[in-house]
Amino acid sequence: MLHDPNRVFVFDTTLRDGEQVPGCQLSTPEKIEIAKALELLGVDVIEAGFPISSPGDFQSVVELSKAVTNPIICALTRANKGDIDSAAAALKYAKHPRIHTGIGASDMHIKYKFNSTREQILERAVDAVKYAKKFVEDIEFYAEDAGRADNEFLAQMVEAVIAAGATVVNIPDTNGYCLPEQYGAKILYLKENVKNIDQAIISVHCHNDLGLATANTVAGIVNGARQIECTINGIGERAGNTALEEVAMILKTHKALNLHTNINSKHFTEISNMVSRMMRMPVQPNKAIIGKNAFAHSSGIHQDGFLKHRENYEIMNPEDVGLIEAGIILTARSGRHALKHHLERLGYDNEKLNLDDVYQRFLVLADEKKEISDDDLLFLMSDGDESAYKNGYKLSLLHVICGDNESPTANIKLQYNGEEKEATATGNGPVNATVKAITSVIGKNIELKEFTIQAMHGGSDDVSKVNMRVSFEGKSYQGYGFSTDIVKASANAYLDAINKFL
Ligand SMILES: CC(=O)SCCNC(=O)CCNC(=O)[C@H](O)C(C)(C)COP(=O)(O)OP(=O)(O)OC[C@H]1O[C@@H](n2cnc3c(N)ncnc32)[C@H](O)[C@@H]1OP(=O)(O)O
Ligand SMILES: CC(C)C(=O)C(=O)O
Ligand SMILES: [Mg+2]
Asked: Are 402 and 408 in contact, with CB atoms under 8 Å apart?
């Protein structure tokens, strides 16, 4: 029945199992936005909702059915006529509709949820599939709590629902109970003991109560399942469902498994952010694949190894999950290689720097702050009291006169190679006068091309950050300066740019 035996179908239930999470409920337009992003990602099936549960959920399934073209749109039901009628009505506009019906399969559920017997439950399962089949061709059956169900009874149930018309049989580990070996063995048991198993696709739907959802899903497909049920960011009931991005990247990374999906992993970062924002569910920083730190290297030994050869510390390429830049995070655990990398990135020529001196000052700042940002680094580099440059110009005096009825005048002193040079200039404002005075000392044809001043946080007592771009002999150089005095910040920014080419 499958054209490609190694193709794994991706069934996304972010909008159904994911949306069951308290606080994650979405409006219909939000669901449509996510559904369109899922379509772009390349999922095969979107579980759009549980239509009987509320008029709002019913309407969402209707609207999603209209909005989405390629993926199958699936609606969940219990094993009863009312739920199935409602799902069939909600799927009226779906180009590829699927009804997902089912009932508990474990003795625990049969006895304590339904107060019933295996025989009666089997009958209800078969009846539900036959009834759903009257409306749509594509019927998925879920054997709830299959993870704890007796394998022999489960096989009997699966065989009966396939005979009744189920095209997909879902074997959920509803409570996240199984070990990967147990779950894999369960799938293999069904492959080997259900006579008509070739007439349906086996689906795996794993929960993460013991942190095993992804491992169990992989065990399931290695043993013959060909559909995975998962959510973006692993959201879902209790500890969540299998994270779509994790399984997709496992299959991409472990080529020897010889299993593949239709997923374009480059959309992961974007869709993860979208789901997290809309559902108000922050992603933990250490979350595999899409967590903030998933591709961030923060300790010196790792950073050094990574910079020498990326694969020393990366088994996946961050670009494959939609991250533009590799993350070398500067902290007090970073070494000189990482610091040098960032200084180069910010336009500094390491040949001209006292790297050891900068590193010592960096460590003092990094001990005070948890993480060193670009702005922190620029601040450190333009610190007027400590020259970062081996032979650079340093401002040793700045005296400015300005105000009403005054011609703005700057008197400056620059130190260079142990020598001190002084100049005075006037301008149309204090910064212009200072820039002119500095240029006269340097004695070169330097053009100021860009000049921006920004308060770092706000308030009149704030530190100003000045960014200047200068042009010298046809090339551009960027400089930064920081100070509570905007004229001093400007002078430092100008000198920072000049020191880069002198
Ligand atoms: C494993 C899963 O994730 S299943 C999906 C879980 N998602 C949800 O439950 C969200 C949507 N649910 C709802 O909106 C509501 O629970 C409804 C509309 C489905 C039902 O609401 P109510 O009629 O008030 O019933 P309530 O939720 O209190 O109880 C569930 C009933 O469904 C029965 N039931 C549970 N699962 C199934 C099933 N698969 N097939 C048939 N009946 C079932 C229960 O035995 C119980 O029936 P009882 O009243 O005869 O004891
Ligand atoms: C409805 C079913 C598939 C489910 O979510 C579960 O068993 O966890
Ligand atoms: Mg579930």
From this structure: yes
Q: Assess contact for 352 and 391: CB atoms under 8 A.
A: yes
Residue 207 known to bind ligand = yes
Angle at 321 between CA 221 and CA 324, to 5 degrees: 170
Domain 394-501: CATH superfamily, name plus number: Alpha-isopropylmalate synthase LeuA, regulatory domain (3.30.160.270)
User: Which one, of 310, 287, 302, lies nearest residue 239 by Cα?
Assistant: 287
**Which CATH number is correct for 9-279, 3.20.20.70, 3.90.420.10, 3.30.930.10, 1.10.10.10?**
3.20.20.70
Phi, psi dihedral angles at 423 (to 5 degrees): -155, 155
Whole-angstrom Cα distance, residue 264 to residue 322?
A: 10
The alpha carbon of 424 and the centre of ligand 2 are apart by a number of angstroms equal to 78
CA 174 – ligand 2 centroid, Å: 6
Ranges for all domains in the chain classified under CATH 3.30.160.270: 394-501
Q: Is 241 annotated as a binding residue?
A: yes
The reply to whether ligand 2 has any atom less than 6 angstroms from the CB of 17 is: yes
Classify 308 as helix, strand or coil. Answer: helix
The torsion of the CA quartet 55, 61, 66, 68, rounded to 10 degrees, works out to 150
**Which residues crowd ion ligand 3, with CB under 5 Å?**
17
Cα 205 to ligand 3 centroid, rounded to whole Å: 7
- pLDDT, tens digit (0-9, with 9 covering 90-100), for 331-373: 999 999 999 999 988 888 888 888 998 999 899 888 877 788 8
Using the mean position of ligand 1's atoms as its centre, give its distance from the Cα of residue 418 in Å: 83
| Site of tokens 């032979």 | 391
For ligand 1, atom 25, which residue shows the shortest CA distance?
A: 53
Q: Is the CB of 144 under 6 A from ligand 2?
A: yes
Q: Which atom of ligand 2 is nearest to the CA of 207?
A: 8
Q: What stretch(es) of the chain map to CATH 3.20.20.70?
A: 9-279
Q: Is 96 annotated as a binding residue?
A: no
Dist. CA 126–CA 267, nearest whole Å: 39
Write the pLDDT tens digit of every residue in 6-51: 999 999 999 999 999 998 999 999 999 999 999 999 999 999 999 9
Give nearest CA residue, ligand 1 atom 7: 20
User: What are the pLDDT digits (tens) for 226-280?
Assistant: 999 999 999 999 999 999 999 999 999 999 999 999 999 999 999 999 999 999 8
Question: Would you call 200 helix, strand, or coil by DSSP?
Answer: coil
Ligand 1: lining residues by beta carbon, under 6 Å: 17, 20, 50, 52-53, 78-80, 102-103, 113-114, 144, 174, 237
